[in-house]
Amino acid sequence: MNTSGDRLRALLHECGLTASDFAAQCGVTPQHVNNWFNRGVPLARLDELADLFCVHRRWLRSGEGIKHPNAILRNCAPRPAPAQVPIPLSVQRGRVVSVPFHELRSGLLCPVAGRHLRLPANALKGLGVHPDNTLCVAMPTGNMAPLIPLQATLAIDMGMTQIVEGETYALMLNGALRVHNLSLGQNGTLYLHSHDRHNYAVERYTPAQRHAQGLEILGWVFHWAFFRQQRPR
Q1: Which of 6, 46, 196, 220 is within CB 3.0–4.6 Å of 160 for a Cys-Cys bond?
Q2: Which residues lie below 8 Å from residue 230, measured CB to CB, with a gap of 6+?
Q3: CA gyration radius for the chain?
Q4: Looking at the whole model, is its pTM more than 0.90?
Q5: Rounded distance, CA 161 to CA 159, Å?
């Protein structure tokens, strides 16, 4: 166990928890937990998770020192996390799906209690979008204007991360949420295109650069909605 992600995976195994169950308890997506496995536990979460599993923060972060504050606690199951459990998706009379809204906190997308977007169930079914793979966020920048204005509500299908030329995707880059049209070039180079081409240049990332900068495709943006900022005069 060389990384904090390896130690977290072992702790889940000891407690009989799946990554999905743990994600729901912490108020994050299973993809975030997989990222913690692969990249290590975020520093902002170390104290919370160490307390949750009754282990020392230092041990969880670096593997140094003793694991448990007290030997009696070695077989303790994790206590309920203080983070809010995400609002479950529900279909009302088979016609409407309530998709939870998320916001970025410390580089992670976290659910916002009591906020969701209602979408027609049949529309999602027609697009092949499974409700359990769907979340909503606010458009973070103005690079896709006027097609997608700043702060427009986006619906993302996290079950579709394969790149289709010219389609719009949400992604994480250096801990920031981004939205772009994507295309693939030679040798796996990923191109990020903006609708506002006058103010935003095309960005290019080789596979090595994508890995170094933590570029992760979250999913396909299949819906956006927004109000006009003011009435016409």
Answers
A1: 220
A2: none
A3: 20
A4: no
A5: 6
Query: Which domains are seen in the chain, by residue range?
Result: 4-75 (1.10.260.40), 91-225 (2.10.109.10)
Q: pLDDT tens digits, residue range 64-107?
A: 877 766 433 334 444 444 333 333 444 444 578 889 999 988 88
Phi and psi of 85, rounded to 5°?
Answer: -75, 135
Reading the block at residue 221, the tokens are 């943006």
Q: How many CB atoms lie within 10 A of CB 11?
A: 21
Nearest 5°: the CA angle 32, 37, 41 is 75
More confident: 136 or 89: 136
Please tell me the predicted confidence (pLDDT) of residue 50: 80
* Confidence bin at 44 (pLDDT 50/70/90): confident
Dist. CA 227–CA 151, nearest whole Å: 10
List Cα–Cα distances, 185 to 46, 48, 210, in angstroms: 38, 41, 14
Q: What residues contact 154, with CB distance under 8 A and at least 6 apart?
A: 136, 137, 138, 139, 148, 170, 179, 221, 223, 224
The residue among 54, 136, 125, 40 whose CA lies nearest residue 91 is 125
Q: Strand ranges (DSSP E) for 121-215?
A: 134-138, 153-157, 168-173, 176-184, 190-193, 203-205
